[in-house]
Specification:
Bound molecules: nicotinamide-adenine-dinucleotide
Number of helices: 6
CATH topology: Rossmann fold
Order of helices and strands: EHEHEHEHHEHEE
Distance between the termini: 30 Å
Shape: globular
CATH superfamily: NAD(P)-binding Rossmann-like Domain
Radius of gyration: 17 Å
Structural class: alpha/beta
Helix content: 25-40%
Strand content: 15-25%
Largest sheet: 7 strands, mixed
CATH class: Alpha Beta
Number of domains: 1
Strand order of the largest sheet: 3-2-1-4-5-7-6
Length: about 220
């Protein structure tokens, strides 16, 4: 399968690329290397008999759509993001530009060029604000509001996913599916929106379980 991984030079994305290649997929990475590193893809690149293309590109740019059209991915796994909560407080405009505008830019390009499925990575905790300890773990329906611009941008994108579902979902397909896989705080749920999926860790404290995603790659800074 032709798979596009945005943010594929980052911590999670590069591990994902290793796995996709090992499973025999044809992988292209889009990344602007703002926090990611080509070195993270060195294992993947050593597998010379497997196809891996790297394109240095910013997901907010006008160049994204023609670049995606050239790749013609069947599936997009979207991990490119501004992931630092403190940076989002210091510069909420940049956070929104990357996480909201960049994602909508990608959604539109994906829709226009025949992508059948898009998986978005959101935040397991920041989108719920800071629930009191006695409320943890919270359900995905928890009504808390984000306390950081990062949480707000991740939550805002979820609204865009619902909007794209409403406008572009194919008839006869299930509107929404939750699949919980493991009983720990880093479990993930896949939410299916017809042609658009989002993948997110289940509820966990913004600065707790998400920071527990300790780096397997040199130079990684913990995110949220
Ligand atoms: N690491 C965690 O604990 C954690 C927890 C929950 C959710 N997430 C989400 O998972 C995804 C991946 O996180 P990560 O920990 O691998 O982060 P990371 O910073 O290691 O990877 C993000 C990648 O996106 C790239 N990128 C950033 N802005 C870009 C832009 N404008 N255009 C193109 N590429 C850009 C970076 O260079 C980097 O390679 C993010 O969406 C993040 O919000 C991470």
């Amino acid at each position: 399968m032709r798979v596009l991984v945005t943010g594929g030079a980052g911590f999670i994305g590069s591990n994902l690329v290793d796995r996709l290649l090992a499973d025999g997929h044809d992988v292209t990475v889009f990344d602007n290397l703002s926090t990611g590193k080509l070195a993270n893809l060195s294992d993947a690149r050593r597998q010379v008999d497997l196809p891996l293309d790297f394109v240095r590109i910013d997901i907010t740019s006008d160049a994204l759509e023609p670049a995606l059209a050239k790749v013609r991915p069947e599936v997009v796994l979207h991990l490119a993001a501004q992931i630092d909560v403190r940076s989002s407080v210091a510069d909420p405009v940049h956070d929104a530009m990357v996480n909201v505008i960049g994602t909508v830019n990608l959604l539109e390009a994906s829709r226009r060029h025949g992508v059948s499925k898009l998986v978005h990575t959101t935040s397991g905790g920041c989108i719920y604000g800071e629930p009191p300890l006695e409320d943890l773990p919270v359900a995905e329906t928890y009504p808390g509001h984000p306390h950081s611009p990062y949480g707000a941008s991740k939550r805002g994108v979820e609204e865009y996913l619902h909007t794209f579902q409403a406008r572009h979902v194919r008839r006869g397909r299930p509107a929404l599916q939750h699949r919980h896989r493991a009983p720990d705080q880093r479990q993930r749920a896949v939410l299916r929106f017809g042609g658009v999926d989002r993948l997110r860790p289940a509820a966990a404290a913004c600065s707790g379980a998400t920071r527990g995603a300790a780096s397997q790659r040199p130079g990684h800074h913990p995110g949220a």
